[in-house]
User: Fold this.
Amino acid sequence: MSASIAALAAPAAAIAQAAPPVPPAPAPQDDTAAANKDATSATAAQNSNAIVVTGIRQSLRQSREIKRNAIGVVDAISAEEMGKFPDTNLAESLQRITGVSIDRSNGEGSKVTVRGFGPDFNLVLLNGRQMPASSFGDCCSAPASRSFDFANLASEGIAAVEVYKSGRATLPTGGIGATINILTPRPLDRPGLRGSVSAKAVMDHTFNGHKIAPEVSGIISDTFADNRIGILVSGAYQRRKASLAQYTGGWREGYLGSESNWGSLAFPGDPRYANIENRPGPNDVYQVPQNGGYDFTTIDRKRINGQAVLQARPVDNLTATLDYTYSQNTIHAVTNSIGVWFNHNDTSSAWTDGPAAGPLFYSEHFRAAGTNGPDDPGELKDLAITGAIAANRSINRSLGGNLAWHGLGGLRFELDAHHSTAETKPTTPYGSNIAVGSAIYGVDRQTIDFSHDMPVISVSMYPGSEIAASNIRPAGNAFRNAYMRDRINEVSAKAGYDFDSSFIKSIDFGATYTDNAVHSAYGFIQNDTWGGTLSAADTPDDLFHITPLPPALAGMSGSNDPALLANYFQVDTQGEISLLEDKLGICSHPASGTAKPGTCLAKYTVDRHIREKTFAPYIQSLHTFNFFNNPSHLRLGLRYERTKITSSALVPVPNSTTWRIGGNEVSIGYGGDTTVQTVRGEYHNWLPAIDFDVSPTRNFKLRASYSHTITRPAYDQLQGGLTVNSPARPDGGSTGQLGNPNLLPYKSKNIDLSAEYYYGPSSYISVGYFHKTVSNFIGTTATQEPLYGLTNPAQGVAYNAALAALGANATAAQIGAYIQAHYPQLYTTVGTDPAILGAPNDPSLVFTVGSPINSNQIAHLSGWELGLQHSFWNSGFGAILNYTKVHSDTRYNNALRYTVTQFAVTGVSDSANAVVYYDKNGIQARLAYNWRGGFLAGYAPYDPQYVDAYGQFDASASYEFRKGVTVFAEGINITNSDRRGHERNSHSVTFAAPGYARYSLGVRLGF
Assistant:
């Protein structure tokens, strides 16, 4: 399964002295062989097996030998295993490795976490080369992540994956958690004509029925001219059609029970106090819900992978390789949502005990029309109905060349270079992520019951506002447009010498130059017309198809509650966009932002470039000797890295503000002015790496490793340019950002210890311990200041004059009429709603500008890794078990007010895997369980976000009924495990998603 190699320090001298001399252990494998591209290494031997698939037992025996013979802390998983896991991509295969867990996106493995360190803390290599990464993070900001999205790669066509958990002088740096090296097959590793073709049908079980999509892959390799020339071509096409349902909730900040803020619970003396059960005490912290809704997403994902390799070996000691790798991942996701937002007025609720209290239910009643007289329209509270589209394509390309020479007398030389790009951009004329809001106005009462795993939303409407398509009106909308491209040019020169002496086995040295250029951009157009635009009569009913809601949430506690909303609407989002552009010009004349002519593609308001240039020489030596008559190995390495950063930003200059009267948003407008800001930074690091192992007996091995590793800051933290976020807030809370290219990378000092016992041809047991001391954590410093001369019309002269003339209870329409009559130059509309433009003499908008800085905080992470691989004699049965326990000395305190600055390492969690298998007489079967404990996912900007513990069962089976012809079946999440997350209290649910199984049936032909 996995080859976990950790180590135990050597001080057991008494044991070593008492042990009798043992025969020499097998020669160690240099686990940097993948990076060095040594075709004779054991890793290269794995690569050849990517074409001819052997049995489970054979592949596990091979993993055992890699584990036993490698130096240092390395995990590996080979193509034989990947091809037979029920996995759609590499991330889902990597989760079988000890200490590795995954993040899922759209139901698929996407990013990996290693020993508690998340995707941004892991570096991904392809054949030892640093790979670029491009992906869109959240919906509403420029892309910024360095993390590699494994969903872009199919497992077919990958020979092996190596996971380096501690530093190596010969490998590029960037992964505190791990350096993950993806290996592709090479034709000269296994001469002759070889290949395989597979096809399968994949069926997703979803709330929207069963959906079947095809997957086809193939690989062919041949050698010519007495096996001195080789060609390999592989390709894979995968399509997936799936549907996902999810509850999504938003929360106010963590208030103390003694304070009064917007959303705070009523105090004694307030009539609403009687509607609160078990109100949190004055020193308790609690959060009230801001919003909750159900999202129903339909996904169409297409993935194309291809590789081509040309190799030549004109003489035995010289090999030239030219390779090209291509991957394309296209996702089109359509989401229909229905939900509620709270105004925190006439509320009732019940609460758990503190000190971090959570709601059992939260409910709000809204004023009916005519309550305060015949002219009172009521609160007209909306039931939100949203159609959203996210359609994007990621393309990765890598062209590389390698020249490896093994001279006489043990001299080695290697030259490697590559040009690689990763690019992500939208595929529709609307942008990368859009949301078009509609609503039915007239909610009487809305309630969220948090006593179930799936929170239950119930709504009652006033007469005439029933939940029907005929009552729906369009509201606000937003079109976000993002772009990211990462280009890496890299050249490495490596040399070494193998000695015949018993003490000095080899010396390696070399240098790598990496030029990394990142371009990210983001823009949006937005109309904050949340009070409604067109009337229901002017909105065609056929844009909204009413659909039963409870069946779509089936399988999760709460989905069968009789109070649950009965229906949601499938929205014709593109049709609604066409209607609103025709009637209101939502794209051609938006309230905020500017679109490219004839489209809804927003022009970029953020356009940033980063250039990182790194020069990294290294030296490494390998020594073999007898330690108290026990075979031992010592590897000493030192790497120096110097990185120079140039960050440039084209920043548009905002020049206007608009406030929809009575709203909570101030729209920011831009003219044609821009400013270019360029800043520079530089840092360097010395990174030692030491590995030691000793074998007291032939089947027992102790290991110890010490290394320094780094992880570079995220791109958005380095990017220059002062930007403001739109919309701003009229009563405070407006924000902006400024990057810092002088940030230092995170730095970790790592200790790894392990003891391993190999008691059978395919069996072993191992115990490992690791400890990481991490410094240079990145925090945020905030300043409050007015920016660009922007003013606040919600507190301006015109609005205050209207209130003085009309009184504090004046309606938005009355205030708008007054402004139009007395300040016509400041009057405008947002949709059909009256609005006010900011004037130069209005009070300034004050922005809280956040800028990243290195803090003096230090975190200590430690843990244990336990592994067992056992074959039950010749029965064909076997088992693989592993468990990782991780501890951090940092912890988030949920019982502190949201304004208290806290520090905690995110992603820290325990994990476990259990696999049983059978492999005999052409029949193979595997049942696997993967579990990850709950963890802190983040705590920005104010409150923590947790992901609950999650486990799932996967299964696979195959039968080779004729030599080279195999039928197989696979299943992922066969027990429909659900996923859930929360904030300070387990009842403060942020998401809850029913799980769905995915099955496939196929045939594989090998030759």
